[in-house]
Design goal:
This is Nephrocystin-4. InterPro entries: Ig_NPHP4_1st (IPR058687), Ig_NPHP4_3rd (IPR058686), NPHP4 (IPR029775), NPHP4_C2-like (IPR058765). Residues 434-461, 488-515 form a coiled coil. Strand 22 and strand 23 (375-376) form a beta hairpin. With 1341 residues, this protein is an alpha+beta fold. Helix 3 runs antiparallel to helix 4.
Length: 1341
């Protein structure tokens, strides 16, 4: 192999591009210890494709692997080369070379092959038309003839069914193939590769019908030396501190020990790691101190060295796109309170290395991810890079490949990752059969034998290679002996690991039925679909979306110095940035008050991490007031020429810039706060408005009411007050401090005129912790993200101030406070027969008197308007139906001496203890009864006795409760529970309360459920929670009450992490996907949380590791559905980590097809009940607008069909979804809304231009265009992609039959080699008679 490559940067660039194209979505991880089997897909005999003699026809075959159980694609899409159509005269059968494709998988159950045929029609080597012929699903292990279905295989991941067939047929064969076994190590599992694909290591560098490996080489890496700045260890300790707080909720002392520092050295061919051990090919490094002189300064380093030689096999002679992948990893150990020592692995950096004899390179460091998608620890604060140097010697391998499982098929996992072999699958609930287990054991035995053979072969090869290539001397002989011993030791460790897995599997066969899982979510998390993941990797807009999602769920990132890392940089700034000096000067110059000037604390991200929750809780100033002031708004704009229609001067990308705003704020448990209208102080008239946009000057926000009425203040400031004395429950201050420490405030920005949401910002609140000061003030400018998380639409400058003061009540609140205080009865629990005697005295009264008394009581109550005598009689009847048992229990409740008061949060668990001792001298059975009228009236039960042994033990260990003698001592019978206690035995019973109903703010005092049921009805009870009381009785078998308690429940208002708003077409089955936005300290949980939704009519599941998918049917038009999705870390729903509110609004839907570049006119109809003066708005005014006079105020007349004209035009081949609203100008009420689904159709191409453009610079071209009309006309030219092809002039005045020069500027975007751009030409009057479409095919050289 060549020692020196001419251009390493160009080589790495080509490899990056090649590896990105072949990036693979991994298959479901099942049976990872088994050997994968190889298969070949063969497509032949495609019949009945209609012929066209006047055009040249060809097809491409698209193949995907599909999991029919999870309804998802995985792997990669294989696209065959163009196959020219040649038909036989007999039966119109297609004759073409047979298409071969290969893959290997461990698990083939429920796996099918999706085949799709695309037809291309060419004329003069130019593609005139492209259409999908049809698709089918092929089964693995069969050869069958299939009839194609209409449409695309994308139907498989939608909720729609497509059984309509077309006339075309073909043969699909998917069978095992042993020939592919010898090269499967070059391709990832589940990845399709076939005819036409380039693979380094395959003979001829391409996949053809005959498969063979090229000559393999082995590399020996020596003289390895890594220099690491000493500050890296400190940064890793800070990273682990945050990691411990997030995963274990532990902010105790940070004790970190570095167990081992190792180097991973592998080879990657652009598809896969080709060396035998893959990412498990590592060595342990020795550490020493070192000083290096840089810029006349002594810099302290840690020198990591390895004195032996590290072997890397799987290297091939062809110098085509193969690189070494190097990773630096640390194994660390840290202490966790109550759990002891924990271990994990952190990735410090990685590096792609071009093969050469000597190297000295810098590691790529975090934040970001490695090639294998492992998270890099954030080392962006180090001043000097981490470097590595060494030497590489290359040798050949003469031995043949032996059959058996390849070790590199098992991807290396960190130490804290669960073993897939040791844990049974929990997703599907299926048990392993005995045949499968025996097969696994047999294959594990074969694996052990193969590892032993590999060890002998490796040692023999090393000895032969060293004997032939090295001159034997004592020093090198010692190095050789150490290297052989190291390899032996590594193989012994691998064999021991397989043995442990072997024993665990045998044990699992006997214990697999003992696993019990409770409280499962209705939808288990699923992996991402193929189409969605490919879009993330290839589509630039989706890449921007993922950058934004990451920025809204993690700490702000800094720019790092490696050019290769630019693709990983996050553009949006979560948590915002501190205001610059220029921002402060601008605000001060424009009269912003001193609220934010004095005592301002500019909090940086490192200081945010150092905020202490314990220090904050110790503050005696526990009455908190939070002020939020909206300072300025600066949209991110793209200036548009006035020549373009419609006649609006400025746009922000594709959106309309609001002229008036209002905000919606979700803060803690306060009701959703809607601000008054806000306007721009420095953009009130059109000239100043235009100047601010052109010069990128922020708009200063003021209250509109200030200009209208001359109010006392103009700044939009609002406040939230939290006073524990007025809230009236224990730990009120603690809960609020925890909210500030962990959560974010969400501010939605709305267009006041169009009533459309403009975007959202999220700001972490930890900066507001005062840490012993009187107040804390922070000023941030935060990026505004659109509701689909795809664009950054501007920035909002916000000031937040937190002021602490002494609470009005100085004593500590407890359950005896007067607000909602516990009242202890002086009476003892009386025997049951005494209470029955009291009840008999009541029953002895005259029945008529009792009826009259009931009627009087009912009439004294407030009866809502609209009730009549019939409803009153119904209420009396319902009261009569109250059971005698309920009355007796209500009397008993007043005598229960033990009383608990709880203040549960929405979705969170509250544990209530009840201590009970057997009062008898002998063992007795006792019955535990929960008297909850809510269960009887609405069917909802929110308080439960924890009686399952596993769950009981979980909560006892969690809260350190008293342990019972046995955890299985309670037997359940519906809502009654029986337990046996020995003489004088004491037990602490645990009751769990959890509600998923919203709090009704109307009621603040205890309510009787049966009365609310009579007045409000069952629907009210199922939707809202309210203050109420529940009783628990402990009776003997004979029915005598010997204990119990009353539980007073005062539910706490909802605390929302984020509000998602979606607008969809009415009465449609929809599937919506959105990112999971956690709190500030939780960028992403270690595993996918369990999801729960309080709406039983929809399905919720994980779409991928970061996004949630919901499927439901939209309600009727103009209806809104509100529900919550909660994410829990445990199966008992105890650890709530996120609470998301979903608001779905259904609008009328309209489907429109529009020829590209041409204006399509349509009409909207509006029905109103009263006269209204309205205005129409579009969410995408570039492609959808209202012509005159409908762009002004319009009067709507009741009782008539009001019609509004609408214009639509598209310039790109993407389907657009546009929202249109009709808003009452007086009341600002949304009168009507529509969702427009706009599908483009490609017009005929008038002329094709082939252009060659340079790669590294912009170039200007001139093309000629002729006016075909016999009269003078003003033509407008529009490019479908202005980033690639830009027109210098967009308007040209042509005389009759005149020819003019059109000037173009060609740019290159990204690393593309080719591009196609259309230019649409139409007259100013938008007549369809004057329209042309030019196609420019650009090749970069």
């Amino acid at each position: 192999m060549s020692d020196i490559l001419d251009d390493e940067q160009a080589y790495l660039k080509r490899w990056y591009k090649f590896a990105k194209i072949h990036k693979t979505i991994p298959p479901p991880k099942k049976d990872t210890h088994l050997e994968s089997l190889c298969y070949r897909i063969k497509i032949r005999d495609i019949c009945n494709i209609p012929t066209k003699k006047e055009v040249q026809q060809s097809i491409r075959i698209l193949l995907n692997l599909y999991n029919s159980t999870s309804k998802e694609f995985f792997g990669r899409t294989y696209e065959s080369p163009f196959l020219e159509l040649i038909y036989s005269q007999a039966n119109q059968q297609l004759e073409h070379p047979e298409v071969f494709c290969y893959f290997h998988l461990r698990q083939i159950e429920s796996i099918q092959v999706a085949v799709e045929i695309v037809l291309f029609e060419k004329k003069d080597q130019v593609i005139q038309n492209r259409q999908i012929v049809g698709w089918c699903l092929g089964d693995i292990g069969q050869e069958m003839k299939y009839t194609l279905k209409r449409g695309s295989s994308r139907f498989l991941i939608s909720n729609q069914s497509n059984s309509e067939t077309v006339g075309q047929t073909m043969w699909v064969e998917v069978v095992e193939n042993k020939e592919f076994t010898q090269i499967k190590n070059l391709i990832p599992e589940g990845c399709l590769c076939g005819y036409g694909d380039e693979v380094l290591g395959v003979h001829g560098y391409q996949i053809i019908s005959q498969l063979a490996l090229t000559q393999e080489q082995i590399a020996y890496v020596t003289s390895i030396e890594i220099l690491v700045p000493t500050s890296v260890d400190l940064l890793i300790q800070e990273y682990l501190k945050k990691y411990k707080e997030v995963k274990y909720k532990d902010d105790g002392p940070n004790e970190v020990h570095f167990l081992a520092k190792r180097l991973v050295f592998t080879f990657h061919n652009g598809w896969n790691y080709t060396n035998t051990r893959g990412l498990n090919n590592f060595i342990t490094l020795e550490e020493s101190s070192f000083q290096k002189s840089i810029d006349n300064q002594k810099i302290d380093y840690k020198k990591l060295t390895f004195k032996g030689a590290l072997d890397v096999n799987g290297i091939y002679q062809e110098p085509k796109l193969g690189v070494f992948i190097i990773q630096l990893e640390y194994d660390v150990e840290f202490m966790v309170t109550n759990l002891g020592k924990q271990r994990t692995t952190v990735l410090c950096g990685w590096l792609p290395l071009v093969p050469k004899s000597t190297f000295e390179e810098e590691f790529i460091i975090g934040p970001g991810r490695s090639l294998s998608n492992q998270v890099l620890v954030d080392l962006s604060d180090i001043k000097y890079p981490i470097t590595i140097s060494g030497k590489i010697n290359f040798g050949s391998i003469q031995t043949q490949h032996l059959p058996g499982p390849m070790i590199n098929q098992q991807v290396y996992q960190p130490m804290d990752a669960p073993s897939l072999v040791k844990l049974p699958e929990q997703g599907g609930g299926q048990q392993l059969g005995m045949d499968d287990d025996q097969r696994k054991i047999k294959q594990l035995e074969n694996t052990l034998k193969q590892l032993q053979q590999d060890r002998q072969v490796s040692a023999t090869n090393l000895a032969m290679d060293f004997e032939n290539k090295l001159k034997i001397d004592k020093q090198r002989e010692q190095e050789y002996q150490k290297m052989v011993e190291t390899i032996k030791k590594q193989h012994e460790e691998e064999i021991q690991k397989i043995l442990e897995q072997y024993e665990d599997l045998k044990k699992m066969m006997t214990d697999i039925n003992q696993t019990q899982q409770q409280y499962l979510t209705k939808a288990q998390p699923t992996s991402a679909s193929l189409l969605g993941q490919q879009q993330v990797l290839q589509d630039q807009k989706e890449l921007e979306k993922w950058r934004i999602i990451e920025s809204m769920t993690s700490v702000p990132r800094k720019t790092f110095y490696k050019t290769q890392q630019q693709d990983l940089m996050v553009e949006a700034q979560f948590g915002g940035q501190a205001l610059s000096r220029g921002d402060i000067a601008f605000l001060s110059q424009n009269g912003v008050r001193e609220l934010f000037i004095q005592h301002t604390d500019y909090v940086e991200n490192d200081e945010i991490k150092q905020k202490s929750l314990q220090y904050e809780l110790a503050d005696h100033r526990q009455a908190i007031t939070v002020f939020i002031q909206l300072l300025s708004f600066k949209p991110r704009i793209t200036m548009k020429s006035k020549d373009l229609e419609p006649t609006v001067y400025h746009y922000s990308e594709e959106s309309r810039i609001p002229s008036r705003l209002f905000m919606i704020v979700n803060f803690y448990d306060f009701p959703e706060y809607v601000t008054e209208p806000l306007i721009y102080e420095n953009g009130f008239d059109r000239s100043s408005y235009t100047r601010c946009l052109e010069q990128s000057i922020p708009f200063l926000l003021i209250r509109e009411q200030f200009l209208k009425t001359g109010a006392s203040y103009k700044e939009p400031v609002f406040k939230f007050e939290v006073e524990p004395s007025s809230i009236g429950y224990p730990k009120a201050y603690k809960y609020f401090c925890e909210y500030l420490f962990n959560k974010c405030v969400t501010i939605e920005i709305w267009d006041y005129d169009s009533m459309m949401i403009f975007g959202t910002i999220r700001l972490p609140l930890r900066q507001l912790l005062r840490q012993g000061q009187d107040a804390s003030v922070v000023m941030r400018k935060a990026d505004i993200i659109d509701k689909e998380f795809k664009k950054i639409k501007g920035e909002l400058q916000v000031l937040i101030k937190c002021v602490g003061k002494e609470d009005r009540v100085t004593e500590v609140l407890d359950n005896n406070s007067q607000m909602k205080r516990k009242v202890i009865s002086t009476k003892k629990v009386e025997p049951l027969h005494i209470l029955e005697d009291e009840e008999k005295e009541i029953i002895k009264q005259d029945p008529n008197e009792r009826i009259k008394e009931r009627i009087k009581r009912i009439r004294r109550q407030e009866v809502p308007n609209g009730t009549n005598s019939t409803k009153t009689l119904m209420e009396i009847t319902k009261r009569k139906d109250l059971s005698k048992n309920a009355f007796v229990h209500s009397v008993i409740q007043s005598h229960l001496s033990d009383e608990k008061v709880i203040h549960p949060f929405f979705g969170k668990v509250e544990i209530v203890e009840l201590e009970f001792r057997n009062p008898y001298a002998t063992g007795q059975n006792f019955v535990i009864c929960i008297d909850d009228q809510e269960m009887k009236c609405s069917g909802i039960q929110e308080i439960h006795l924890i009686h399952q042994p596993v769950e009981w033990k979980y909560y006892v260990d969690l809260y350190n409760h008293s342990k019972p003698q046995e955890f299985n001592m309670i037997q359940a019978n519906q809502n009654n529970f029986t337990m046996f206690l020995t003489a004088k035995e004491k037990v602490v019973l645990l009751f769990k309360y959890q509600t998923f109903r919203e709090v009704n703010q109307e009621y603040t005092e205890l309510q009787k459920t049966e009365e609310l049921f009579t007045i409000k009805g069952k629907q009210f009870l199922t939707q809202y929670s309210y203050p109420r009381q529940v009783a628990v009785f402990i009776n003997t078998i004979e029915g005598q009450c010997v204990g119990g308690m009353r539980v007073k429940i005062f539910p706490h208002s909802n605390t929302i992490d984020h509000v998602y708003r979606f607008y969809e077409r009415d009465n449609r089955q929809v599937s919506i996907q959105f990112p999971a936005l956690y709190g500030y300290t939780v960028p992403a949980p270690d595993k996918k949380p369990i999801l729960f939704c309080n709406n039983e009519q929809l399905v919720v599941e994980w779409a991928n590791d970061f996004e949630i998918r919901i499927s439901l049917r939209m309600p009727e038009v103009n209806k809104q559905s509100v529900f919550y999705i909660l994410a829990y870390q445990d199966t008992y729903f105890k650890e709530l980590i996120a609470n998301w509110q979903i608001k779905l609004t259904s609008l009328a839907g309209i489907g429109i097809e529009v020829p590209l570049g041409q204006v399509q006119n349509t009409k909207l109809t509006v029905h109103v009940e009263i006269s209204r003066q309205v205005k129409f708005y579009s969410s995408h005014p570039i492609c959808v607008w209202f012509p005159q006079p409908y762009d002004q105020l319009v009067n709507l007349i009741p009782g008539k069909i009001n019609i509004a004209n609408l214009c639509v035009r598209l310039f790109t081949e993407q389907i657009h979804k546009v929202m249109v609203t009709c808003v009452d100008e007086q009341s600002h009420e949304l009168v009507r809304g529509w969702i427009l689904n706009i599908s483009p159709t490609v017009p005929p191409i008038s002329q094709v231009f082939d252009i060659q453009a340079p790669r590294d610079q912009m170039k200007t071209y001139i093309v000629k265009y002729a006016n075909k009309q016999n009269n003078e006309v003003l033509l407008i030219f529009k490019s479908s992609n202005t980033q690639i092809l830009k027109l210098v002039e967009t308007r040209y005045l042509f005389k009759a039959q005149q020819i003019q020069d059109i000037t173009l500027q060609i740019h290159r975007v990204g690393e593309m080699d080719k591009a196609e751009v259309k230019v649409f030409i139409g007259d100013e009057d938008r007549s369809r008679d004057t329209f042309d479409c030019l196609l420019f095919r650009i090749a970069y050289i």
